[in-house]
């Protein structure tokens, strides 16, 4: 849900930081990547690669057959992609429904209790640091003339909700997440497929999967930095670290099940 509670204090803090750095002068900060599905693609891809690579690591540590890696890897990849896609669809649909219902309640309140809503909106703007006279004469009294705008403002101030985006289609969100998960999640499995004609050594194939996964994670780390505004090297390092930790943990669990518990695929 698009919640922006506490947005006023965050905005004032950011403005204060800009002023301390030179009153807003100097080089203009770089804008993040924008787009309706950019974040879903990048973060879904990161989750997919780490999940699939962890699975490959655990299977490789507990079995000597690359066939098992491919079969179980793709089976789990498809299952996880469907689960993620459906989850994104349900989440987006539920978010829209909640915002629409909350807006109907707020509309009723604005129409039937305009004075109370106006007073609460005035309090909200004062809490943000606006002068009482400015908030009353220049903002709130004007909003009173425009009921739709006042409803939007009350949604933000009272419930921390932005107006529902009518252009958002939940089924597209689910489809994008499913596709992203499938494409990026299959990356760690590519080395096993590509190396089949060249070697039968499963260790070599697993090392290839590690290299391919690291490259994919690094590229997505760059994309993540463009979205979040982080430094490229820091974003890449954290992304690779997350993948390495997840893979190493999964490998250790698979190795333990094979050598300690005596389980082997």
From TrEMBL:
Membrane-traversing stretches: 175-198, 204-222, 234-257
Top-rank lineage group of the source organism: Eukaryota
Keyword Transmembrane helix in annotation: yes
Statement: the UniProt record of this protein carries the keyword Transport: yes
Membrane topology per record: Multi-pass membrane protein
Catalysed reaction, written as an equation: Fe(2+)(in) = Fe(2+)(out)
Region called Disordered, residue ranges: 1-31
InterPro entries per record: Ccc1_fam
UniProt signal peptide: none
GO cellular component, one term: vacuolar membrane
GO BP annotation list: intracellular manganese ion homeostasis
Pfam families: VIT1 (PF01988)
Keywords: Ion transport, Iron, Iron transport, Membrane, Transmembrane, Transmembrane helix, Transport, Vacuole
GO MF annotation list: iron ion sequestering activity; iron ion transmembrane transporter activity; manganese ion transmembrane transporter activity
Cell compartments where the protein resides: Vacuole membrane
Main location: membrane
Residue ranges the record marks as coiled coil: none
Record-stated family: Belongs to the CCC1 family.
Role this protein plays: Vacuolar Fe(2+) uptake transporter.
Protein name according to UniProt: Vacuolar iron transporter
Organism: Arachis hypogaea (Peanut)
